[in-house]
Amino acid sequence: MATTQTVLEFFDKRGGLPGETLEQKLACHFLDAKAIDSMGIVEMVSELEEAFGIRFDADDMQSEEFQTARGLIGIIDRLRAQAAG
After folding, report:
1. Phi, psi angles (nearest 5°) of residue 68
2. What tens-digit pLDDT sequence spans the chain (85 residues)?
3. Which positions ≥6 away from 21 have C-beta within 8 Å?
4. Which of 31, 33, 41, 76 maximizes the CB count within 10 A of its CB?
């Protein structure tokens, strides 16, 4: 399952991320852009954890990376690699 595609599809179902290019969408700070609210974060974490068989910890969710789609994708890929062993 392609991480980038899954993350972007999550946001697309909620109106998408602002930006005309993929690069702009990946760099978007989704909370600042109001692409998602606090309840949406809960849904996002739940859906992505289930989709990828991972668990975000508090450090992941409080990190700078967690604020953009690109960073979120990086965290997911790292957690998937760790889970794979």
Report:
1. -125, 160
2. 599 999 999 999 999 999 999 999 999 999 999 999 999 999 999 999 999 999 999 999 999 999 999 999 999 999 999 988 8
3. none
4. 76
Residue 52 burial by Cβ neighbours in a 10 Å radius (0-12, 13-18, 19+)? middle
Distance between CA atoms of 12 and 50, rounded to whole angstroms? Answer: 18
CA distance 32 to 49: 23
